[in-house]
């Protein structure tokens, strides 16, 4: 990026939050530009302490839309230059993306490979799961459990949570969120010594962007009430289940298409009634 372009870009940095200002760009009484978010969070202009007005900086907005900005991961090595619109879709696939460790109380962030070595480090006593793993757990009132999964040369988070007499399991793909649907997982609950007494739950893998609250509350996970699992609890009071991760034969694109086709065929049926 040449100096002139870099200078122009710096004019589009918000004086409040230092991010590039996306439209709508607001102004203070003096005429300083500021991003809309900051006008909601700050009381006065951070440069001159004047009040904000409702006026927008239309010319600056149209310039802001045309400019190409460095990827937010540029400090980690990403060389991409993108418009605001391109930036949103790029962020989902940027290979320099940093991921945060989902362990409670851990603030580590790193690339895919850094996450893996963090997880393998001696400091963490958390073993990595493979393609298949038998788990046993006590149905406690409130609990949270997470493991790194290595399968198909990819990494996933396997998360388990118990809350309000319910157990939830979820799998998240660490990487390009468009690829999450290429994988699915199964939880097979069975009673030890009675292997044919079992239930199999199955669901797609979720993208990494979903936070734990949404993951466990908005049907993005597998869940079962403690009551429904009562008959499967072993003599040791533990629930035994087998976790498996699969690569779908259908790609994410095919699944989306399949869902669309299915929707259109069901509307046909209702019309023909
Ligand atoms: Zn701002
Ligand atoms: Zn000002
Ligand atoms: Zn990038
Ligand atoms: Zn950690």
TrEMBL record:
Keywords from the UniProt entry: Metal-binding, Transferase, Ubl conjugation pathway, Zinc, Zinc-finger
Domain (SIAH-type): residue spans on this chain: 66-124
Domain RING-type, residue spans: 14-49
EC number(s) on file: 2.3.2.27
PROSITE patterns per UniProt: ZF_RING_2, ZF_SIAH
Gene Ontology biological process terms, A to Z: proteasome-mediated ubiquitin-dependent protein catabolic process; protein ubiquitination
One term under GO cellular component: cytoplasm
Pfam families, per the entry: Sina_RING (PF21362), Sina_TRAF (PF03145), Sina_ZnF (PF21361)
GO terms, molecular function: ubiquitin conjugating enzyme binding; ubiquitin protein ligase activity; zinc ion binding
EC class of the enzyme, as a word: transferase
Function: E3 ubiquitin-protein ligase that mediates ubiquitination and subsequent proteasomal degradation of target proteins. E3 ubiquitin ligases accept ubiquitin from an E2 ubiquitin-conjugating enzyme in the form of a thioester and then directly transfers the ubiquitin to targeted substrates.
Family under the similarity heading: Belongs to the SINA (Seven in absentia) family.
Domains: entry comment: The RING-type zinc finger domain is essential for ubiquitin ligase activity.
Identification of the protein by name: E3 ubiquitin-protein ligase
Organism annotation: Agrilus planipennis
Lineage, uppermost ranks: Eukaryota, Metazoa, Ecdysozoa, Arthropoda, Hexapoda
């Amino acid at each position: 990026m040449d100096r002139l372009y870099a200078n122009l870009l710096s004019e589009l940095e918000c004086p409040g939050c230092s991010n590039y200002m996306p439209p709508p760009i607001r102004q203070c009484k003096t005429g300083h530009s500021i991003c809309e978010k900051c006008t909601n969070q700050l009381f006065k202009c951070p440069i001159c302490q004047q009040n904000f007005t409702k006026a927008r900086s239309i010319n600056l907005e149209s310039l802001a839309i045309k400019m190409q900005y460095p990827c937010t991961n540029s400090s980690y090595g990403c060389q991409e230059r993108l418009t605001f619109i391109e930036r949103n879709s790029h962020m989902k696939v940027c290979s320099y993306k940093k991921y945060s460790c989902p362990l409670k109380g851990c603030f580590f962030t790193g690339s895919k490979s850094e996450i893996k070595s963090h997880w393998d480090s001696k400091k963490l006593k958390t073993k990595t799961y493979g393609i298949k793993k038998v788990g046993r757990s006590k149905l406690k009132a409130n609990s949270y459990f997470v493991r790194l999964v290595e399968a198909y040369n990819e990494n996933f988070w396997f998360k388990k949570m118990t809350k309000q007499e319910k157990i939830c399991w979820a799998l998240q793909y660490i990487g390009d969120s468009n690829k999450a649907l290429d994988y699915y997982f199964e939880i097979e609950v069975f009673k030890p010594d009675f292997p044919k007494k079992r239930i199999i739950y199955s669901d797609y893998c979720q993208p990494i962007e979903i936070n734990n609250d949404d993951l466990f509350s908005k049907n993005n996970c597998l869940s079962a009430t403690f009551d429904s699992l009562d008959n499967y609890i072993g003599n040791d009071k533990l629930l035994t289940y087998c976790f498996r991760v699969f690569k779908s034969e259908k790609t994410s694109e095919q699944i989306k298409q399949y869902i669309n086709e299915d929707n259109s065929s069901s509307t046909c049926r209702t019309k023909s009634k």
